[in-house]
Design a protein that fits this description.
Bound molecules: 5-phospho-D-arabinohydroxamic acid, zinc ion
Number of helices: 2
Radius of gyration: 17 Å
Number of strands: 15
Order of helices and strands: EEEHEEEEEEEEEEHEE
Helix content: under 10%
Structural class: mainly beta
Oligomer: single chain
């Protein structure tokens, strides 16, 4: 880099869909076939097209995963939809390094950030364009789209947070976000 040089940023956000664009952006997607065991109603799940897109993530990971002190940035888009009466949602995870926090913020659409502590107490925060959510350490987090259009949210987390998906795969969250009387409602999960 030249002293006193003025540069264009190497990455930016597309203002139409808030996708990340530029150098080194990683894209991933989760379809129905990738989310087996996450939703409660297996019959409703099996009736859906396995190729149906549920959510996709773009991320900028400027340092090696595990590096202390770095930051990662991502945008997640969850499609509207339900499996039975349960809203389309992300897989959800604890951070592998439990004491690492994260920011989420709402960009487009309506949703719910579902949070669970290590004692399996679960609660949720409403997400909307401009909502800001600090996810504290040792809190599992997942997001559901409760609206009729794609839900887009941003995330920023530390590069040595890591992801523990196994805990959620095995035990799930202690509550599920379902539509009841046309409204999102948290109810206790049946034990897995
Ligand atoms: C987010 C999530 C993203 C997808 O970037 O990874 O929204 O959710 P799942 O990872 O649970 O499938 C984040 O929380 N990073 O730490
Ligand atoms: Zn996270």
């Amino acid at each position: 880099m030249l002293h006193n040089s003025i540069l264009e940023p190497s990455q930016s956000l597309n203002k139409e869909n808030w996708y990340l664009q530029g150098e080194g952006i990683i894209h991933s997607e989760k379809r129905i076939k990738n989310l087996k065991g996450i939703f409660d109603n297996d019959d409703a799940f099996n009736k859906l097209d396995p190729e149906m897109l549920v959510y996709n993530v773009q991320a900028h990971l400027p340092v090696k995963e595990g590096t202390p002190g770095g930051l990662f940035f991502g945008t997640t888009t969850i499609q509207p939809g339900k499996v039975g009466n349960e809203y389309f949602m992300t897989h959800g995870h604890f951070h592998a390094n439990g004491d690492r926090g994260e920011y989420y913020w709402g960009v487009q659409g309506e949703g719910m950030l579902i949070l669970m502590d290590v004692n399996r107490m679960t609660w949720a925060e409403r997400m909307f364009p401009g909502s800001l959510h600090y996810i504290n350490s040792n809190i599992a987090h997942r997001v559901a789209n409760t609206g009729t259009s794609p839900l887009i949210f941003g995330a920023c987390w530390v590069s040595d947070a890591g992801h523990d998906y196994e805990e959620i795969e095995q035990h799930g969250f202690s509550s599920r976000l379902i539509e009841q009387n046309k409204k999102p409602c948290l109810i206790d999960s049946k034990s897995k």
